[in-house]
């Protein structure tokens, strides 16, 4: 009977993995999140940051970032077993507007971000936050 218990648990675990809703290789994929400051330069001083970003998840604070025009902010993440990995950012266009947006949500982004080197690309522009998964076509997903 003890031997049966020792076999049953690993067998149940193996069977549950066969029915998991996405490929087991997704656990090992590094997703790259890129946020680029494409806001217009409103002062004569290009070395003055005009975008403030604060990005985090429930378990990890990526940190605050003051960004210059055309500067890129990046980090990597993996999808957790429950597929609940979620990073959000607050973007503040200095002296203009502020918005909080989902920079990475596993259930939304695991397939769409695989298309271009496992990258989710965001562009902060004067009319909103744009998304691309190919670095060519951009969609305004979060208007200001």
TrEMBL record:
<feature type="signal peptide">
    <location>
        <begin position="1"/>
        <end position="25"/>
    </location>
</feature>
<dbReference type="Pfam" id="PF05938">
    <property type="entry name" value="Self-incomp_S1"/>
</dbReference>
<dbReference type="InterPro" id="IPR010264">
    <property type="entry name" value="Self-incomp_S1"/>
</dbReference>
<protein>
    <recommendedName>
        <fullName>S-protein homolog</fullName>
    </recommendedName>
</protein>
<keyword id="KW-0964">Secreted</keyword>
<keyword id="KW-0713">Self-incompatibility</keyword>
<keyword id="KW-0732">Signal</keyword>
<comment type="similarity">
    <text>Belongs to the plant self-incompatibility (S1) protein family.</text>
</comment>
